[in-house]
């Protein structure tokens, strides 16, 4: 896992070294850059370093834009077994009881030491934005697409992710869009053979026959949450890319080896508050 994280950070160094034709000042200008670059492509995969404030906020901004033109399906790297809880929350009033019921799910019920950054206040805010848009009458849904039930990777995980994503995309009408939020490696079109992720596949790599637009999001200043092993506690990683400039960079669409279609370098990525484990209600405890 350390090698994979190092490889992803090195990708950002390459991004920082290139000229950035489109200035990026905040989440809204980042969203504008994605919308312009994606064009008519309806499957937008946002690759993140888990645990930031800005990347879930970017997906919120994209959802608010695209929902005005048709159905939107937001796909999150959350265990697929949480689908019923998320669907129930989207149909709720968003109050404390509904939020507690959502967070009682096994995916959310991990200790801070085992939180890899996918269980944050920013992630809940993203789900709640979908709930609010749904309540306003927009056609929007949230689907969790991680088939894994533990923190351990397994050989078929990315293929399983892609199977769920494909089914969700194919269920959309021609006016619909799918917004996928996932880790940077899962968002790669092609996993480079000379990186710490060599030998691994990617969910996006199984979806290249679809109208896909893959985006890698990094920050000049960055802080995120990561787990480097199953035996050591997860923790915050932070740093800065000296000489990097915020902006959007496009890959050559004719390059079949490109890892992403677009790279975004935000001014900063800040760490979101991690969620504490909640105590289950009596009914939930009895069901377990």
Question: Mind sketching the topology for me?
Answer:
Blueprint: H1 2-17, H2 27-38, E1 43-48, H3 54-66, E2 72-79, H4 83-90, H5 96-103, H6 121-135, E3 140-146, H7 157-170, E4 177-183, E5 212-226, E6 235-240, E7 247-250, E8 262-269, H8 282-287
Parallel strand pairs: 1-4, 1-5, 2-3, 2-4, 5-8
Antiparallel strand pairs: 5-6, 7-8
Helix pairs in contact: 2-3, 3-6, 4-5
Protein name: Calcium-binding protein
Organism: Luteimonas yindakuii
Can you describe this structure?
By secondary structure, the protein is an alpha/beta fold. The chain has one domain: Rossmann fold (3-Layer(aba) Sandwich), CATH 3.40.50. 32% of the residues lie in helices and 21% in strands. The protein contains 8 helices and 8 strands. Strands 1, 2, 3, 4, 5, 6, 7 and 8 form an 8-stranded mixed sheet that branches. Helix 2 crosses helix 3, helix 3 runs parallel beside helix 6 and helix 4 packs antiparallel against helix 5. It is globular, with a radius of gyration of 18 Å. The model has no long low-confidence stretch (mean pLDDT 90). This is Calcium-binding protein.
CATH topology: Rossmann fold
The helix/strand series, from N terminus to C terminus, equals HHEHEHHHEHEEEEEH
Count of DSSP E strands?
8
Distance between the termini: 32 Å
* Chain-averaged pLDDT: 90
Supply the CATH architecture: 3-Layer(aba) Sandwich
Low-confidence stretches: none
Helix content: 25-40%
How would a textbook summarize the main sheet? 8 strands, mixed
Number of domains: 1
Count of helical stretches: 8
CATH class: Alpha Beta
Percent strand equals 15-25%
Radius of gyration based on Cα positions: 18 Å
Shape designation: globular
- Which structural class matches the secondary elements? alpha/beta
């Amino acid at each position: 896992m350390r090698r994979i994280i190092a490889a992803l950070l090195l990708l950002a160094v390459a991004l920082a070294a290139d000229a950035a034709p489109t200035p990026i000042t905040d989440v809204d200008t980042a969203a504008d850059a994605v919308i312009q670059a994606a064009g008519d492509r309806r499957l937008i995969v946002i690759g993140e370093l888990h645990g930031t404030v800005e990347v879930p906020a970017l997906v919120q901004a994209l959802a608010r834009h695209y929902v005005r033109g048709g159905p939107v399906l937001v796909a999150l790297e959350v265990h697929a077994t949480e689908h019923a809880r998320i669907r129930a929350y989207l149909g709720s009033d968003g109050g404390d009881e509904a939020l507690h019921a959502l967070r009682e799910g096994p995916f959310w019920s991990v200790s801070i030491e085992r939180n890899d950054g996918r269980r944050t206040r920013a992630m809940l805010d993203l789900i709640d934005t979908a709930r609010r848009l749904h309540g306003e009458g927009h056609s929007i849904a949230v689907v969790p697409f991680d088939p894994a039930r533990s923190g351990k990777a397994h050989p078929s995980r990315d293929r399983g992710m892609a199977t769920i994503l494909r089914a969700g995309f194919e269920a959309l009408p021609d006016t619909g869009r799918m917004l996928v939020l996932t880790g940077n490696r899962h968002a790669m079109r092609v996993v480079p053979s000379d990186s710490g992720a060599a030998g691994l596949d990617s969910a996006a790599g199984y979806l290249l026959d679809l109208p896909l637009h893959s985006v890698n999001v990094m920050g000049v200043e960055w802080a995120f949450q990561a787990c480097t092993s199953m035996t050591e506690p997860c923790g915050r990683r932070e740093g800065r890319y000296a000489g990097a400039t915020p902006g959007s960079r496009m890959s050559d669409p004719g390059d079949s080896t490109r890892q992403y279609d677009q790279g975004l370098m935000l001014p900063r990525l800040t760490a979101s508050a991690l969620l504490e484990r909640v105590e289950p209600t009596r009914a939930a405890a009895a069901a377990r």
